[in-house]
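tool=predict chain=A
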Amino acid sequence: MRNNMPENEANLLFCQLLENNKKIAEKKQDLLEKYKDGQKPKIALITCSDSRMPLSLYGNIEDMMGNVFVGKDIGNTYEYSDAVVDYAVLHLNIPVVVILGHTDCGTVKAAAGNFEKETETIKERLSAIKKSFIDKENHIECVENNVHRAIQKIEEKYKDKINNKELCVVGCVCDTAGAYNNLCGLTYIVNINGIKDKETIKSHKLLENMEDGLKEKTIAK
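tool=predict ok
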């Protein structure tokens, strides 16, 4: 990078990101050109805007490019990501939709408190999340219930596709805070098509290619 760049972390980072992009674009041209005329993604991922939730937690550009259709918003609220889901299901014919929450989610925490002074757009999202709460004292339960509620909404809308096995809706929580077992960043499956029981989830067809050891580690109790 140039030596005369302003000594400001945000400015430096922005320039670094563009430099990274240039290097990747030059290095990965063969891969990028494969998708210059369109996309056929296999998974739709609805997750939180939190900076601790980068796609790089789940693979490199070869894994993500052309494969993962992404929607991000604070608190991964379904009501404000529903257009992403509709487009994924109805126009891209994506067979797997993943709702991905995370621990230490500031939006979920805010929804548990008083948010009357927030902007209208933030209040709308926090109000939607608050509808899923059972126990405001248990943050992980609130995070999981926010995911469960999104799954329920998608199930209601696309019941026929799920029943016909054209669509599978998965709920996950990324443990950005190490709250489950002190391993930060590990993702846990908490719901598949409304199923929350661990043993039933383990036998679901979606996971038939997953090793048993990984199932034990990534299916929440």
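Residues 163 and 189 are 20 Å apart (CA to CA). The chain has two domains: 1-38, 41-218.
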